[in-house]
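[Discussion] Sanity-checking designs against the backbone

I'm trying to build intuition for which residues belong where. Below is a structure token string of 143 positions. I'd appreciate it if someone posts a full sequence so I can compare it with mine line by line.
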């Protein structure tokens, strides 16, 4: 299984790792059965994601996708961040092996989960804005 230089770089030197105290939104997705769990923390100011951190328990690809996703999201408006797809995450990493694409789906879902949490904390129903988050398809293969 070959990884691009970008995947290896984000795995060995992940960006934005950690927690945000008093985060405006926290999202956690994944499944202990498949071994990949992602948690994302957001700080939002005036609709802009001013800070984002992650904690990922998983393989190198899961860590790399979390890292690059946070780089892509930081400084963006919530609307712009919601447009970032797992496909965009994979492209930013110069590709992933097919067996690891589900890691990028987790990154997209962790972000949506954190944004949903942010809206809930504001007393706003996130469903019409964020849409359905869904489950990790790879997790179902392990059940």
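Best answer:
Here's mine. Compare freely.
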């Amino acid at each position: 299984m070959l990884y691009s230089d970008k995947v290896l770089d984000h795995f060995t030197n992940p960006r934005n790792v950690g927690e945000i105290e008093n985060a405006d939104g926290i999202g956690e997705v994944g499944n202990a059965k498949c071994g990949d769990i992602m948690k994302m923390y957001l700080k939002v100011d005036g609709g802009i994601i001013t800070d984002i951190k992650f904690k990922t328990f998983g393989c190198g690809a899961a860590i790399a996708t979390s890292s690059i996703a946070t780089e892509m999201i930081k400084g963006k408006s919530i609307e712009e961040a919601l447009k970032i797809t797992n496909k965009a995450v994979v492209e930013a990493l110069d590709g992933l092996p097919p067996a690891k694409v589900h890691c990028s789906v987790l990154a997209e879902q962790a972000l949506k989960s954190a944004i949903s949490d942010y809206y809930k904390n504001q007393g706003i129903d996130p469903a019409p804005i964020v849409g359905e988050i869904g489950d990790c398809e790879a997790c179902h293969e392990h059940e």
